[in-house]
Structures are given as structure tokens and as C-alpha cells.
Amino acid sequence: MAEPLDARSSDGGSFDARPLDIASIRADFPILAERVNDSPLVYLDSAATSQKPRGVLDSEASFLAHGNAAVHRGAHTLAADATEAFEDARFAVADLVGAEPESIVWTSGATAGLNLIAYSIGNASLGRGGKAADRLALAAGDEIVVTESEHHANLIPWQELASRTGASLRHIPVLDDGRIDLEAAAGIIGSRTRIVAFPHVSNVLGLVNPVDALVGMARSVGALTVLDACQSAPHLALDLPTLDVDLAVFSGHKVFGPYGVGALYGKAEVLEAMPPFLTGGSMITTVTLDSAEYLPPPQRFEAGTQPVSQAIGLAAAVRYLGNLGHDAIAAREASLERRLREGLREVGGVRMLGDAAGVERVALAAFDVDGVHAHDVGQFLDARGVAVRVGHHCAQPLHRRFGLTATVRASAAFYNTEDEVDIFLDALSGVRSFFGVEGTR
Ligand code: PLP
Q: Which of 221, 284, 356, 394 is catalytic?
């Protein structure tokens, strides 16, 4: 196993953290010991979904085996204990992002969170939610601004909202080096802008976007900000209130937790103003045959039976990350990021997307191999036990902007080793000769 490298971020800053014990971390993730196609698994697809430590698997199983009951409904002891565990999980997830528990709404994931926001604003635009919701209502002439680098989950809900309300959708372009074009943004975000939605970290480029600058521009025109924190939550120490975004989403399965759970963060006054999207049980105070009164947030947005065991599993993941320490994780991942990116630069015929210098980034790189289709690269690597993602990564407009339809994406997490990155790079070095295209590492 490789020794931990020195702890320095890619933008030159240094981390003051004790190196992680990588061998014991890997022992916490049973899947990392698997073999695939007769080779040890090299899992470099954490941006698609992360692996889960044993504590997460055990906490879910233990709840289901010993504590399972419907939350917020029963008067019996098991139900009360389940409710307490579920609400404790909300505390843990709130803590992960520096927020109050009332600002955290359970969702089934980031996609569900973004749709919740867009449909809630759509309902406000129909006059639902009373006076408080009026500030959110959109109409013809209003503008929603996104970036060219969106995951489809932070694009299509806004397209749909625009078409339902008559608002227009505009986008901030991405520069050749992957950075968001802030000069263009300053010209696009203006008096008509009502919503600015953008990714904290693009799932293709890996760059940490300038939240301060975009929030500042949005604030100056009174627009609502929506942060897609799917690819930052697993890697950065997040403090959403300090970032000053109005709303943010992320998915549990990408932060080493279970599938089927995620969180929507909202500032208290914004959640308070938002009408519900899904309606039904558990989100009401009084119901008649003709109408209903709704609970305050977060319950207003949690209609129906919630992902209880998954939320408890997610809280276990958050505790696991907390025990490792966010600085130590960042230091470890900065080392992997450097190894990955520097190595890729040396492989002949490889073009990385978003290779901007001096920008903070996560350990993720999407690239094109000259003369070999991304799917062939993926199969070649898979045959050697290396799991990467190939395709458009749910970001077709961004790929189109770079003249591509598909790329290969390698994404690491703190449980990966430098040796694994090297195995990946060595295998990749053989791809072009295997497919009869020149070029070596
Ligand atoms: N946003 C980004 C940046 C993502 O990477 C993803 C998933 O890949 C999503 C949104 C959607 O997440 P989910 O599929 O978990 O809802």
C-alpha cells in the first residue's frame, strides 16, 4: 500500500491534518476487497456512487432488525424510538453542512430535491402558498439562469419550470479550461433574473465553482440561489449558511450513505415561503374534504412514508466522515487528485476536460482518448478490474460544448490508494496501442 503523500491542495494551500490510516479505512469497505474480471477491483467511479462503510450497512440493518417502526405516527415505544433515531439523523446531516435541523428536508436524492424546488416554485407561480410565496412566483419576462456545466438534474427541472410559467432559461457559458465564465455571468444575471442555479462542483470537470461570486451577483439583483452540492458534499467541508445560498441539494449515496435518501437544505425564510410539491399524509395539521392546512418546514415537504432506515444509514456515514476528519479527507483526496491529474497529462492522446490551473478541485477527471471511443476505453479498463464511468455523465450540453458526445471519467475518494491510481494510469497507457492508435505514456 502506498504511503500517504504530503498533504497539499491542488491550489497550493496546505492542510494541517494527520494522515489517514488507509489500510484500516479500506477494511471498513468490504467491497474494496472484491475481485473483478480476475483482477483486484480498482473502484474509480465514486462520483457516480460512493462505496459504503460497514458501519452504514450495519446501522441500516440493525434499525430494520431491531428498531423498525413508522415514524411520527405511532404512540408505541418502538415508534417513538424510531422517530427519535430518524430526527437524530436529521441533526447529523444538518451538522454535515453547518445547518440547523429545521433547514434539512429529506428527499430521495438530489434529483428529487431539485424537482421539489422547481415544482414548489411552479406552484407559487400558480398562486399557491399565499402571500409568502408571491416572492417566488415566476411569470413571462422572468429569467432562470443555469450554467453550461449542469448535470441534467439541475437543468431539466428548470426547463420544465420555464415552460410552465413562461419564464426564460438562460445559461452562463463555460470557458475552454472549464471555469465558469464570470464575465459573461455578470452580463447575464440582471434585473430579470429570479433564480440562479449552479453546481458547486461539476460532475464532469471536477472544479470547485466560485460560489461567492455567483451568489454575490444573484444577491445584487434579488435572485434566489440554488446550489447543486452533489459532487461537493462527499469531498469538501460544507458550510451552507456561510456560502449564503438559499437552497442546496445532495444525495446520500454519493456521501458514502445509502441509496434512496438525500437532503434539501433551505434558508428558514425561503422554506417558509415555499408551497409544498408532494402532498398527502404527514405534512398536514388539519384536513377537511375540501382543503388542508400544512405543517411548517421541513415536514411540509415530507409527504408520505419517509426513507427512515436510509436516513439512519446516512447519519452513520456522516459520523464516519466526522471521525476521519474533513481536513484529513481533503488532504488525502488532494494527493489522489494530483496523482490522477498529473498522470493523465503524461498519457499520450489524452485530453482532459476542465484542466484549469490554480483552481480548487476534487479528485475527478473526465477525458477523451484520441482515436478510441470512451466505451471501448471503459471496457478495456474493466477487463483489468478498473471501474470508471463512460458516457455523457448526464451532462450532454457540456460535452457538446467541448465537441464530444462521451468521455471517460475517473473519480476517486479517500478510500482509494495512489497504487490504484497508478494501476489505472498504467492500464490506460496501453489503450491506444491495443486499439491500433499510436501513443504511449
Ligand atoms: N447533480 C450532480 C452534479 C450529480 O453528479 C448527480 C448525480 O450524478 C446529480 C445531480 C443527481 O443525483 P441523483 O441521481 O443521486 O439524484
A: 394
Best of 106, 111, 198, 249 for a ligand 1 pocket test (most atoms within 8 Å of beta carbon): 111
Ligand 1 neighbour 153 (Cβ under 6 A): yes
Mark whether 179 and 275 lie in a shared domain.
Answer: yes
Tell me the three cell numbers of residue 291: 382543503
* Ligand 1 atom with minimal separation from the 113 CA: 16
211 burial class (0-12, 13-18, 19+ CB within 10 angstroms)? buried
- Domain check: are 270 and 339 in the same one? no
Domain of 359, CATH number, reads 3.90.1150.10
Q: Are residue 131 and residue 47 in the same domain, yes or no?
A: no
Q: Which residue has the cell 498533504?
A: 7
Residue 394 is among the residues annotated as catalytic for this protein: yes
C-alpha 78 to ligand 1 mean position (Å): 34
CA of 87 to the centre of ligand 1 (A): 25
Q: Is 109 in the pocket of ligand 1 (CB under 6 A)?
A: yes
Q: Which domain holds residue 242?
A: 61-321
Q: Strand 104-107 vs strand 262-266: parallel, antiparallel, or unpaired? A: antiparallel
Residue nearest (by alpha carbon) to ligand 1 atom 5: 203
Cell numbers that stand for 14 in this block: 496546505
Cβ contact 124:133 at 8 Å: yes
pLDDT tens sequence for the chain (441 residues): 333 333 333 444 444 567 889 999 999 999 999 999 999 999 999 999 999 999 999 999 999 999 999 999 778 999 999 999 999 999 999 999 999 999 999 999 999 999 999 999 999 999 999 999 999 999 999 999 999 999 999 999 999 999 999 999 999 999 999 999 999 999 999 999 999 999 999 999 999 999 999 999 999 999 999 999 999 999 999 999 999 999 999 999 999 999 999 999 999 999 999 999 999 999 999 999 999 999 999 999 999 999 999 999 999 999 999 999 999 999 999 999 999 999 999 999 999 999 999 999 999 999 999 999 999 999 999 999 999 999 999 999 999 999 999 999 999 999 999 999 999 999 999 999 999 996 444
The count of domains in the chain is 2
Helix (H) or strand (E) run with residue 27 in it: helix 22-27
Q: What is the CATH number of the domain that holds 311?
A: 3.40.640.10
